[in-house]
Amino acid sequence: xxxxxxxxxxxIFKRIKNKGKLNEDDIKNCLHEIRIALLEADVNYKVVKxxxxxxxxxxxxxxxxxxxxxxxxxxxxxxxxxxxxxGSKQNNIIINSSPPTIILLAGLQxxxxxxxxxxxxNYCRKKGHNPLLIATDIYRPAAIxxxxxxxxxxxxxxxxIGKNENAVNIIKAAIKYSTKKNHDILIIDTAGRLHIDDxxxxxxxxxxxxxxxxxxxxxxxxxxxxDAINSAKVFCEKIKLSGIILTKLDGDSRxxxxxxxxxxxxxxxxxxxxxxxxDNFQTFHPERMASRILGMGDVLTLIEKxxxxxxxxxxxxxxxKIKNHNFDLNDFYFQLKKMKNIGSVNQIVDxxxxxxxxxxxxxxxxxxxxxxxxxxxxxxxxxxTIKEREYPNxxxxxxxxxxxxxxxxxxxxxxxxLKQFYQIKEILKKGPTMRNISFN
Length: 440
Description:
Number of strands: 8
Low-confidence stretches: 357-370, 432-440
CATH superfamily of the largest domain: P-loop containing nucleotide triphosphate hydrolases
Order of helices and strands: HHHHEHEHEHEHEHEHEEHHHHHHHHHHH
Distance between the termini: 30 Å
Helix content: 55-70%
Number of helices: 21
Shape: flat
Structural class: alpha/beta
CATH class of the largest domain: Alpha Beta
Largest sheet: 8 strands, mixed
């Protein structure tokens, strides 16, 4: 989402780096370019104005023009200011000392509220909790059924009692049910609307008055731009929200809403959604996001993802193969399967410092997201000899024809697979940073 903004920041920083020491005009021009970059990314105007003012003050206090490394100092200060407007620190959900913890999810239709409810429940389950999803959207056709289907698919329980009860009565019944089944976290999927209306707000206020809520989280669509900010303001006026879950952060938009929310609304972003899969859900770390926006990677998140997907023996084996330049097609297939748990190559590369431009040359999303593509790759690799898998450079024209016949594929698919293999091998060969992060 922040690709364009990252590129602009990189260009600005490169320009001042080439200048060495900076005079006042250089600093003024730099601030102007940063201001334009943020506005073009659809960051709220008042947020940008305050950001530039604070940054200018910091630059003066640090006496950047007299510094021996002005570019590094400015990058450091920009990183600090972006972290500040994103919220400065991570905010966890509040867990009730006496179960259950009750979490209300609010938002307009189309923001991904129901899907997010399931993702949040899965996140809580991974943390050792026993979550229960509560269906209270009695207005939207098939809303309850949608939650039930998603819950069943993810092996998560859903409480629903039909469309004849109001939301408060449904939640009260769910609380009674949860004590019998030892559910310690209840996640309420509330009704949404295509637009703000009195009925929607009245229902949320009634829940707030009658149910002991620990969290009231607003689901915000990162793709909606400043319209999302305006809608969020209305929700904040009607109920006392405790946090935000920002969805569709993997989308192709300018990303300004993420940089505006905390400053405009005064409530923290607690989680982010980065795709459609149930595991495409993360706690929000302002300092990590700031680092990624500036093209400096996100090492800590990458470490967490790798550690959750690999065991120590797998890491040692792969580390040895990469260091010895013995990464072969068997390893390639193994990594593709692992990437289903870690994320797409583009997402992974985006977390590696200095590698933000590589992702424009490769796209493995199709490979790791679709099971049939992985089966096709397995068929192709299985049709190769042991020597061909270990030394793909020997696969000439006649060998490709034989492999295509044996795997039931076309020669162009063999060519595409080999091209992708060599691309990722090149990243691993040139990237000691990636090896140090992932495989030590």
